[in-house]
């Protein structure tokens, strides 16, 4: 098999009904399969898929393993040259996959590529999770072409260039299956959020290139699993970001010392904004980070 497009689902029957038809309609290359991996759903997702989308391969996991381990357990059962990690709330467009596979075939030093990711809700604008390619700054904070912090830009063609990036978005990323497996896949301890950035950092440390291909576009709803303001999301992002820095940065100690002060400053900013749950989430994230490393 050339490529497996894998959508991880957890209790998302209605989301699959909305977004999966575009994937089926625009994924027509030979030797490409579409897989929905069900992460222990308790709704009617599996029955619905079997009834309404019989051409889709279903892999049923016995419980919710989270984004990271859910993908790891699914990709263990896949023998394709490439896998595409595709969020269940992504609408793809005609020709979305062909440029990515062609680029990977032609550039054997590239481990992963992503398309341009625009907002499903505001289609002229980039989407937060990936935009036009991801980077990590000197303090370990991730950002994107087309998005810094929560500010996203309108897509006016300003990033219509193929470029090397620091990370490709887990909302839609094409990866060499052998590289994914050799590097241990996504870190299951992350559970969710920033796990793809950690994997991409490990790829770069191993000498691989990562690329954004803006000639193909997908539309991402975003916030389908956790809303941007969710304290749980705040907790996971802060905790996982620290773990990622500790694992992958060559000399992390100076940065981690600075982050001690910056993280607590952020926590008190949340409190000043009237967000006590986010304030507590930062403290919990720092406490649990120390337990993980």
Describe the structure.
- It is a single chain.
- By secondary structure, the chain is of the alpha/beta class.
- 39% of the residues lie in helices and 23% in strands.
- It contains nine helices and 13 strands.
- The strands form three sheets. Strands 1, 2, 3, 4, 5, 6, 11, 12 and 13 form a nine-stranded mixed sheet that branches. It has a two-stranded antiparallel sheet with strand order 7-8. The protein has a two-stranded antiparallel sheet with strand order 9-10.
- Strand 1 (3-9), helix 1 and strand 2 form a beta-alpha-beta unit.
- It is globular, with a radius of gyration of 18 Å.
- The termini are far apart.
- The mean pLDDT is 95.
Please tag this protein with its features.
two-stranded antiparallel sheet; nine-stranded mixed β-sheet; 13 strands; single chain; 293 residues; alpha/beta
Summarize this, please?
It contains nine helices and 13 strands. The chain is α/β, with parallel strands linked by helices and 293 residues long.
Order of helices and strands: EHEHEHEEHEEEEEEEHHEHHH
**Sheet having the most strands:** 9 strands, mixed
Question: Strand tally, please?
Answer: 13
Q: How many angstroms does the end-to-end distance come to?
A: 38 Å
Q: How would you sum up the global shape?
A: globular
The average pLDDT value, as a whole number, equals 95
The portion of residues forming beta strands comes to 15-25%
From the helix content, strand content and strand pairing, which structural class follows?
A: alpha/beta
Helix content: 25-40%
pLDDT under 50 segments (min length 5)? none
Report Rg. Answer: 18 Å
Number of helices: 9
């Amino acid at each position: 098999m050339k490529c497996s497009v894998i959508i991880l689902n957890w209790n998302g029957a209605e989301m699959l009904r909305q977004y999966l038809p575009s994937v089926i309609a625009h994924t027509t290359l030979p030797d490409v399969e579409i897989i929905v991996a069900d992460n222990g759903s308790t709704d009617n997702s599996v029955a619905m898929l079997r009834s309404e989308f019989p051409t889709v391969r279903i892999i049923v996991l016995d419980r919710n393993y989270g984004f990271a381990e859910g993908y790891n357990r699914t990709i263990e059962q896949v023998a394709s040259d490439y896998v595409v990690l595709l969020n269940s709330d992504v609408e793809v467009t005609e020709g979305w996959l062909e440029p990515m596979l062609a680029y990977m075939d032609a550039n054997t030093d590239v481990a992963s590529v992503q398309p341009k990711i625009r907002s499903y809700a505001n289609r002229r604008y980039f989407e937060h999770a990936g935009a036009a390619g991801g980077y990590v700054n000197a303090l370990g904070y991730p950002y994107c072409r087309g998005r810094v912090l929560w500010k996203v830009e309108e897509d006016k063609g300003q990033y219509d260039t193929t470029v090397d990036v620091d990370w490709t978005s887990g909302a839609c990323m094409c990866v060499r299956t052998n590289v994914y497996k050799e590097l241990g896949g996504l870190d299951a301890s992350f559970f969710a959020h920033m796990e793809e950035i950690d994997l991409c950092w490990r790829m770069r440390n191993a000498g691989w290139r990562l690329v954004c291909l803006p000639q193909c576009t997908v539309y991402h709803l975003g916030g389908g699993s956790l809303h941007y303001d969710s304290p749980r999301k705040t907790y996971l992002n802060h905790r996982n970001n620290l773990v990622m820095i500790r694992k992958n940065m060559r000399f992390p100690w100076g940065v981690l010392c600075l982050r001690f002060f910056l993280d607590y400053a952020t926590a008190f900013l949340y409190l000043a904004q009237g967000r006590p749950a986010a304030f507590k989430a930062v403290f919990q994230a720092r406490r649990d980070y120390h337990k993980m490393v």
